Amino acid sequence: MELFLLIFGALFSVINPLGAVPIFVGLTQDDSNNERQRISFWTAINVFLILLISFFVGQYVLTFFGISIDALRIAGGFIIVNSGFSLLNRKFTKGRGVRKDVENDAQKRNDIALTPLAIPMLAGPGSISLLIAMHQDYPLIEQKVSACLAMGAVSLVIFLMLRSAPYLARILGASGIVAISRIIGFIVIAIGVQYIISSVVNIVEAIDFTK
Hints:
The protein is an all-alpha fold and 211 residues long. Helix content is 83%, strand content 0%.
C-alpha cells in the first residue's frame, strides 16, 4: 500500500490532471454532455495505455539507444523541474506542449482524446521518464503490480476530473485552479530535484577514485 501511494502521488503530481480542466472545458465547449463523457473515458484509457507501455517497454528503448538509467533520471528530472516551474508561473498550458495552433486544430477534429489531451498534455515526457526510471527501481513482481494499480488509479482520477471539468471550473474558478496548480508545482519541482540528486550520487559512487 505504501508503494502504491508513493507511485500514485508522484504520478498525480507530475501529470496534474487539475491543470487540464480549463483546457478540456475550452476544447469541448461545443460538445454535448455525452460527448464530453466519451472523450473523458477514452482520454483516461489512452493515458493508462501510454503509461503502461512507457513502464514496461521504455527500458528496452533506452538499452537500444545506449542510454543509462542515471542519464534518463537526470534528463527526466530537468523536465519534471521545468514542468513544476511552469505550474508555479501559471504557464501549465504551455508547459504541456499545447500551443494555440494545436488547440485550434484540436477543436476542428472529432476526437481529441489521444492528442492533445492524453499526449502530450497529460502523459508527457515527465511522467514517461518517471515511469521508465521506476521500472528499474522496482524489479519485484508485486512492486510492478502496485505500479500498474497506481497507474490505473491515476487514470480513473483523470476520468472523474475531466468528466466533472465544467463543474470544477465553475466551483474552483481560475484563481482556485491556479492556486492548487502552484502547490502541485512545488511538489513536482521537489520530485525532479530528488531524481537529479539521486542520479548524481549514483554516478559519483560508481567512480573509482583509487585509479
